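Appendix B: a complete holo record

For completeness, this appendix reproduces one full record from the ligand-bound portion of the collection. The bound molecule is zinc ion. The inputs are the chain sequence and the ligand SMILES; the output is the full three-dimensional arrangement of the complex, encoded as structure tokens. No fields have been trimmed.
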Amino acid sequence: MQSALTWNEPPLVHRENDWGPDFANDDRFTHEWWLEDGHFGPPSHQWRSYRLEDEEVARVLLSLRYVSHSPIPSPHALLIWSIEVREDLRQNGMRLGTTIVDQIAEEFSDREIYVGSIPGANGFWTTFGWPMCDCDDCRGRNMMVRHP
Ligand SMILES: [Zn+2]
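The structure of the chain with zinc ion bound, as generated:
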């Protein structure tokens, strides 16, 4: 399955008062995450649409210039801002979300990767075994971080 999973960046389009990624209008994704927030754009952010066998199966928003929580902060870290597997494909044994996060971790193997607390998804994130960030702000409570 992994080899068949591909992603592309949806085109950015202007809307009435805003602009944003042109994701398909698909109710199996959470609208407000993907269609109503155009405040994030390149080059600091990247929207991704993942496809499997010509169907969109997941969406991701990455912050590519996230500032590391390390003692010498640099905007060289990555933040997985959002990830959503299509509703009908969750917890069906395909492990799409896990595969996508593994691929991102490999793609950015030389960078710190942060994950904030995502409501309802903490069980998903604990499967990766990434430690909690122990910086003075997080104190082991707020975010997970995968060190290079
Ligand atoms: Zn931290």
